[in-house]
Design brief:
four-stranded antiparallel sheet; alpha+beta; 3 domains; globular; single chain
């Protein structure tokens, strides 16, 4: 690596330093941290998930597990036995400098619990309000993600330089990207509308922007909506799928649009 500013060796400024350990900010630093953590967590009995490399689990007894989720250097621990969770925290604290923040309230999304009903909700209220203020859409609302009468297509894209210049001042890609982020994380009710407005990101027109603002208006008053997880009434984890399609819903390519939803024990998983 280059010699750090203020620590250059006189007469040898052109020479490079040999890197003996990982430093914060280097491109390989995240990989070095993950490898270090993975080696230790495996040593104390955790197994890395085959489906997500940042999810680990440890079997205690038959049907009883401790789960650990890693996001950069933030962790979530989940399990039934508080004593076992404290033991894992003690092991991690002995190996790494860490701070126990207690029950998780926010990690990427906001986490709400109702222990009386055994319900857990994931919402993005703070992020939603931030986006609405950013695009000056915090004062109006509608009742649907996208109205039935709104029909947009590639024909609504700008045809001349003047219209394109006018739309160049609109942060269309940022707006539709914000909707997509909400949809992917906690708002599946935005899936259809966000997919429609995202089609025209390459050459958006005024009508496309009006449709996007309609979706933003829907967010006003629905910022508390999100994903709800609760135990099924009969305590059986059945997988159910719901699929539907329309007829020629894509006006540009005259093809149908398909939507699906899958639940596990009445909880949406896909």
């Amino acid at each position: 690596m280059e010699q750090p500013k203020g620590f250059e060796v006189k007469g040898k400024k052109k020479l490079m330093c040999k890197l003996n350990r990982s430093l914060y900010g280097l491109k390989q630093s995240p990989r070095c941290w993950y490898k270090r953590f993975d080696d230790y967590i495996s040593l104390i009995g955790f197994i890395r998930s085959l489906y997500d490399p940042c999810v680990y689990y440890k079997k205690l007894t038959e049907g009883d597990y401790i789960y650990l989720l890693l996001y950069v250097d933030d962790m979530l621990l989940a399990g039934r036995d508080p004593t076992k969770l404290k033991e894992i925290k003690a092991q991690l604290s002995a190996e790494f400098d860490m701070k126990d923040l207690g029950a998780a309230k926010k990690i990427l999304v906001e986490i709400l619990r109702d222990r009386n009903t055994n319900e857990l909700s994931l919402i993005q209220k703070t992020y939603t309000n931030k986006v609405l203020c950013r695009f000056n859409m915090a004062n109006s609302k509608v009742t649907t993600p996208l109205a039935q009468h709104i029909k947009i297509s590639a024909r609504d894209s700008p045809k001349d330089p003047t219209d394109r210049q006018a739309m160049s001042y609109v942060s269309y890609s940022n707006a539709t990207g914000s909707l997509m982020y909400l949809m992917v994380c906690t708002r599946p009710d935005l899936a259809h509308s966000s997919s429609i407005v995202n089609r025209y990101m390459g050459n958006p027109g005024k009508i496309h922007w009006e449709a996007t603002k309609w979706v933003f208006r829907y967010l006003v008053g629905t910022e508390n909506r999100g994903l709800l997880y609760k135990p099924p009434k009969d305590f059986k984890l059945r997988v159910r799928g719901f699929v539907d399609a329309n007829f020629a819903g894509d006006p540009d390519k005259i093809r149908l649009l398909t939507g699906f939803a899958f639940t596990l024990g009445e909880n949406l998983i896909s």
